[in-house]
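Provenance and format

Records in this collection were gathered into a single text stream. Each protein contributes a sequence line and a token line. The two records reproduced below are adjacent in the stream.
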Amino acid sequence: MKKEVLVFIFNGYADWESAYICSELNEAETDYIVKTLSLDKEPKISMGGFRIIPDYDVSDYPKNFSMLLLIGGYAWMKQKNNAILPVVEYAVKHHIPVAAICNAANFMAENGYLDNIRHSGNMLEYMKSQAPHYKGDINFLEKQAVCDSDIITANGTASLEFAREIMLYLKLKPVEKIDEWYKFNKLGFYKK
């Protein structure tokens, strides 16, 4: 039986931010499968126009999931996704990794999850403006993606680095293969 990675989706989620990692997790030879989670079971439409019917909602998700992915989008800025907080709290309490990219990292900051760990995000000043209760600025790193204490954070331009950190954390492939995958996707066929 494959281990489930839950990807939180909502109207207007930034679909490209999870594209690299979800396609890698869903490969036949991995131990993982991607499932979607939302606030309810109504269809959600991504920024790119993909219409998705969530597999689970916040009241019926499986408690034995392997990772929670929080994808960016404008809804985080308007506090429209706050009902996901109990799922995040459950994951953190049970040492289930949480990966947050772009504005989802601001959500993690606002709720205190980044105060005492190394982390990244879009920009420190932006994070502080979006997360008034954030107290972790001393731990903010100007890096594309950071993994610390079962939490992975990344900025909105770092979907590849986000995927790489998740792949490394889950030991999805040998490190050399992950590095090859990253370099190929970052540099492409042609170096110029």
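Adjacent record:
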Amino acid sequence: MARSIPLIRSSLLSGFPALVRDLGGRLDEILEDVGFSLEQLEQPTLLIPFDKQVRLLQVAAQSCDREDFALQLAKRQDMAVFGAHVQ
């Protein structure tokens, strides 16, 4: 039986490039290491494998020497990262 891979919206990485730059990380190297492109991060409705997002955050944390990288990213975001609000 094939195992399905959970997918998440790329909007959950909103602000990622700016945070990497603010912390002195090398964005191009991080993206290349994980196999992402800046264009992918800029498409908020793109579905990406969860494990790839986790890997991106881990590589960024190492590159920026910030164990709390994911927390710092979350602090810059709001509920809009989850998609359009429907009333």
